[in-house]
Amino acid sequence: MSYTDMDIEMKALSMLGSNVPDEDAQMLRTVCTAAAAELEGRLRRGVSSDDMTELFTTAAGMLAISMYMELGSAHSGGVSGFTGMTNISGSQQPNDLVQIQTHIFLI
User: Fold this and answer.
1) pTM assigned to the model
2) CA 43, CA 84: separation in Å to the nearest integer?
3) Rg, Å, the chain Cα set
4) 60 closest CA partner among 41, 33, 99, 98
5) Which of 57, 82, 99, 100 is the most buried (most CB within 10 A)?
6) CB 33 within 8 A of CB 4
């Protein structure tokens, strides 16, 4: 991996164009890590984030901003509800993020 989570955080901060309040700094770091993991998991087989470091960090930064803003909305009452996954067992258990997301939307 030729990028770091800090690279994504710096990219997100530059795109936000403003400073993140100190109390939200850890939240931004966390969503940057989550964004990188999300995008790494979506890369096609044989494609590496190392092949497109600048593009990858920009995309992860944009996704992190989206996650950050959504979480900020949750703090301010912008999200009215959330439903988690049901308990799944055996062969129905999703084994990757896309299957989990699909399952959530089917609930």
Assistant:
1) 0.66
2) 26
3) 16
4) 33
5) 57
6) no
